[in-house]
Amino acid sequence: MSQYFELHPDDPQPRLLKQAAQILHGGGICAVPTDSSYALVCHLDDKAAAEQLRRIRQVDEKHHLTLLCRDLSELASYARVDNRQYRLLKLATPGPFTFILEATKEVPRRLSHPSRRTIGLRVPEHRVTQALLEQLGQPLLATTLILPGEEEPLNDPQEIRERLQKQVKAVLDAGACPMAPTTVIDLSGDEPALVRQGRGDASALGLEL
Q1: Gap between the Cα atoms of 98 and 43, Å rounded
Q2: Among 174, 148, 137, which residue's Cα sits nearest to residue 30?
Q3: Which residues form the YrdC-like domain (predicted)?
Q4: In the 8-state DSSP scheme, what is residue 28?
Q5: Domain ranges, residue 176
């Protein structure tokens, strides 16, 4: 049975965040709220947990997992960012955007795209997620909580617990999230490319599909 933490969305309880961080350090997978939808997260350095993330979602190694970072300075430790890319990132973070960037050597090779050596990164704008990242002291590996064969992310923490109680160690309930995935922007090429229009307004960054 998954542990179930009811967190205040604006002022999450440190005691519960510490317990969730301990679960992640121990190799567990958690379902957490973000500013786009609920996500599945695990410790960055836990190979078995990352493989479990992919099994739950039924995606292969070519599917970009995402690093959730606290801020732009942390993001820059895991991705190569030039001045042009940085200006765009500064406009869009924190917020519901995922950026595909060239991974640095700080990112384990097994986590980046096998042929492109790229990784998805984002800085979420959600108090609970940010507080959990602060408690953990490093990025989290994440994927949107969309189950195989479904098109919409799960949004009800109770339903997440019922459906995934044998696969995740904890559910962090901070209420419903927007039921929309992030907007995905590929910055690994010569020009920014809008891959998916989601909750983030790409037109505010000068990009259109």
Answers
A1: 19
A2: 174
A3: 14-200
A4: -
A5: 3-200
Residue 207 lies in a domain: no
**Which tokens is 15 given?**
């005691």
The total of structural domains in the chain comes to 1
pTM: 0.92
Of 33, 24, 40, 34, the residue nearest 164 (C-alpha): 40
Provide the token pair at 141. Answer: 């590996």
Residue 144 lies in a domain: yes
Closest Cα partner for 36 from 96, 94, 93? 96
* pLDDT tens track for 152-189: 888 899 999 999 999 999 999 999 888 888 999 999 98
Does residue 43 lie within any of the structural domains? Answer: yes
Q: At what angle do helices 127-136 and 14-25 cross, to 10 degrees?
A: 60
What mean pLDDT is predicted for residues 140-150? Answer: 93
Cα radius of gyration (the chain):
16
Q: Specify if 13 maps to a domain.
A: yes
Sheet with 140-144, strands from edge to edge, namely 3-6, 170-173, 30-32, 39-43, 140-144, 66-68, 118-122, 97-102, 183-186, 193-196
Contact 40, 143 (CB under 8 A): yes
Query: Rounded to a whole number, what is the largest CA-CA distance in the chain?
Result: 47
- CATH code of the domain containing 32: 3.90.870.10
